[in-house]
């Protein structure tokens, strides 16, 4: 028989689902941490490098302005050339840094304005270098011609005005270069802030996903706990309560379902039914054994053993009250067995037992005493009072026909009756009834013989 989707399979599915959710949560967490680490590393390497490049660019731009000041202060051609050499070196550094900054992924937009400002600043510094060179030469000529050279003084005055104009232009260009570099620095910072914000938003999204996975895991765990409690714990406790009673009732077991507990409950129910059936059979057997211990198996009358035990229990009652004893023997019973078989003999015994049970008073203790013999203790009756009842039973037996295998049998019985012998034991009364029975046999059978009271019997007998 094909089994249903069992409890083990259901628990396995719930466990697998819970494991899958937990592993997915761990996977998402590890993936998020990995991406976060990579993003931080990328931001750190790209943005930091770009910021450092921009900072060095700004420093070099400011240094170029300082080199321009050295050029302005030069009073000989050696100092002038040294200042111009430093300006050229600064220019090379600035151009290299601009190229590096342009190639950085952290920067966007054009660097044309910065390049243009740098070109203008360099051209202006060269023009300043020319003016400074002219100033140095003019001062040298003035010294050679005399300190009161009017033309030299006028030329120096014009040169100083032009140098002042170039310095003003240099200052303006330096400020514009600083602004251009600052723009890119701010842009890098803005890009960094935007990247960090995107990263934070992604982290928040992943946190929501992780929270959702955790919620699903808790829900699956709750469903698993509730399912185990409902489908396992409660049912097992119910089974335990049912089988813990002194007399378990099979109908109290819940056998619905097709899982392992339901199959176990059905097995237990069958076991309880088997126990109940066996118990009923044992009780029936005990009752039958009890019955057979005190009754004759063929006639269902009391047996001789029970009759004698009953007499022992009623000794005090027998000594105080009147009673009579009846002995009955089926006539020619051996001939019936020999002629018609033991089955016919059994039917005859049962018929005689039935008539005796119907004819004797209700209070009589009737027993099968031996093969075809019966004995009865009749309390409260004298022999004279009991004789007509026995006579009526004898006549009914003699008139009735017992059909055995299609053959009608006529059966008779002999009766011996004895009344309680005063101050004597029951055994003497039983012996007297047996003697009366044999007297009936000697007189020709099929009769009731009452043993008369003799003079030797103590007084106290007579009719009740």
Task: Give keywords.
single chain; alpha/beta; Alpha-Beta Plaits; 6-stranded mixed sheet; rod-shaped
Q: How would you describe what is shown here?
A:
It is a single chain. By secondary structure, the chain is of the alpha/beta class. It folds into 2 domains: about 5-220; about 300-450, Alpha-Beta Plaits (2-Layer Sandwich), CATH 3.30.70.270. About 70% of the residues lie in helices and about 10% in strands. The protein has helices at about 5-75, 75-105, 110-145, 150-245, 260-295, 305-315, 315-320, 335-340, 340-360, 385-400, 425-440; strands spanning about 300-305, 325-330, 365-370, 375-380, 400-405, 405-410, 415-420, 450. The protein has a 6-stranded mixed β-sheet with strand order 1-3-4-2-7-8. Strands 5-6 form a two-stranded antiparallel ribbon. Helix 2 runs antiparallel to helix 3 (about 110-145) and helix 3 packs antiparallel against helix 4. The chain is rod-shaped and about 205 Å long. Residues about 460-464 have low confidence and may be disordered.
Order of helices and strands: HHHHHEHHEHHEEHEEEHE
- Kindly, what is the distance between the CA atoms of the first and last residues, rounded to a whole number of angstroms? 77 Å
Instruction: Tell me, rounded to a whole number, the average pLDDT.
Output: 81
Poorly predicted spans? 459-464
Computed structural class: alpha/beta
* Largest beta-sheet details: 6 strands, mixed
The number of helical elements comes to: 11
Shape: rod-shaped
Give the beta-strand count: 8
Based on CA atoms alone, the radius of gyration comes out at: 68 Å
Estimated share of beta-strand residues: 5-15%
Count of distinct structural domains: 2
Q: Helix proportion of residues, in percent?
A: over 70%
Going across the major beta sheet, what is the strand order? 1-3-4-2-7-8
């Amino acid at each position: 028989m094909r089994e249903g989707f069992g409890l083990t399979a259901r628990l396995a599915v719930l466990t697998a689902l819970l494991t899958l959710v937990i592993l997915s949560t761990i996977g998402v967490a590890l993936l998020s941490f990995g991406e976060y680490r990579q993003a931080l590393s990328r931001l750190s390497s790209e943005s930091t490098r770009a910021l450092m490049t921009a900072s060095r660019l700004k420093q070099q731009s400011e240094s170029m302005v300082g080199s321009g000041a050295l050029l302005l202060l030069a009073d000989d051609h050696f100092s002038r050339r040294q200042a111009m050499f430093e300006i050229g070196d600064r220019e090379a550094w600035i151009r290299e840094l601009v190229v590096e900054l342009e190639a950085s992924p952290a920067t966007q937009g054009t660097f044309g304005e910065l390049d243009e400002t740098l070109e203008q600043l360099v051209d202006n510094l060269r023009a300043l270098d020319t003016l400074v060179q002219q100033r140095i030469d003019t001062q040298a000529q003035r010294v050679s011609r005399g300190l009161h050279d009017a033309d030299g003084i006028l030329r120096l005055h014009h040169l100083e005005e032009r140098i002042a104009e170039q310095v003003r232009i240099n200052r303006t260009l330096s400020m514009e270069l600083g602004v251009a570099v600052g723009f890119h620095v701010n842009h890098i910072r803005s890009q960094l802030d935007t990247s960090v914000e995107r990263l934070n938003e992604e982290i928040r999204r992943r946190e929501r996903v992780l929270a959702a996975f955790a919620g699903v895991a808790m829900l699956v765990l709750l469903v698993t706990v509730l399912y185990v409690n409902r489908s396992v714990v409660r049912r097992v406790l119910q089974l335990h309560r049912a089988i813990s009673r002194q007399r378990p009732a099979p109908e109290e077991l819940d056998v619905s379902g097709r899982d392992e507990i339901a199959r176990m409950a059905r097995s237990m129910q069958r076991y309880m039914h088997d126990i109940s059936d066996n118990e009923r059979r044992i009780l029936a057997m005990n009752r039958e054994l009890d019955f057979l211990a005190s009754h004759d198996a063929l006639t269902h009358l009391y047996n001789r053993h029970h009759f004698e035990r009953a007499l022992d229990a009623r000794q005090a009652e027998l000594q105080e009250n009147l009673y009579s004893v009846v002995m009955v023997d089926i006539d020619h019973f051996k001939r019936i067995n020999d002629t018609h078989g033991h089955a016919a003999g059994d039917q005859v015994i049962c018929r005689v037992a039935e008539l005796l049970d119907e004819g004797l008073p209700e209070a009589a203790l009737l027993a099968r005493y031996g093969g075809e013999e019966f004995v009865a203790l009749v309390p409260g009756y004298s022999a004279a009072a009991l004789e007509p009842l026995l006579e009526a039973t004898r006549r009914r037996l003699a008139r009735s026909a017992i059909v055995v295998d299609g053959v009608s049998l006529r059966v008779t019985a002999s009766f011996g009756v004895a009344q309680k012998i005063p101050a004597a034991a029951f055994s003497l009364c039983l012996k007297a009834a047996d003697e009366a029975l044999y007297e009936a046999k000697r007189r020709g059978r099929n009769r009731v013989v009452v043993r008369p009271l003799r003079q030797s019997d103590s007084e106290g007998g007579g009719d009740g």
